[in-house]
Amino acid sequence: MIIGLWLLCLALWAFNGAFLIYWLAKNKRSRQSLMALLNGFREGLKACGLARTACRYPVELWEWVTLDDDEVCEDCLEKASLPPMDIADWMKEGLPGTPEAQTECGQNCRCQLVPYNPKIRNRNQTPKS
Questions:
Q1: Is residue 88 a contact partner of residue 39, using CB atoms and an 8 Å limit?
Q2: Containing H/E element for 10?
Q3: Closest CA to 76 of 50, 104, 108
Q4: What is the tens place of the pLDDT at every residue in 82-109?
Q5: Which residues are within 8 A (CB) of 1 and not within 5 positions of it... i.e. 6 or more apart?
Q6: What is the largest CA-CA distance in the chain?
Q7: For the chain, how far is it from start to end, CA to CA, in angstroms?
């Protein structure tokens, strides 16, 4: 049920975003305003820990990645050792930087969920954007 509500909210969010983009393109004709809006969406996704990269294949599995420094809390290290999971399982576990994750670092979490790629050998560090 929670996933259903989340999907409904996501659909409404996407509809509102599409409407804003349409309205800006039609009424303002300002490329700067449109780019600012799109960059805001990208930063919002990054803040939620969902780093998106260009990928040729559909992404089904995500993994918890830390910065691998001295400031990483024990809870995040434990979550980074979990196997890659789909987004629904990560939502049950808790996304980085959310209260549901129940980590010591809480909202100051610097971890991210990144698409799982078995070809990457060193997944200890968050990719630089």
A1: no
A2: helix 2-23
A3: 104
A4: 999 888 889 888 888 888 888 888 888 8
A5: none
A6: 50
A7: 34
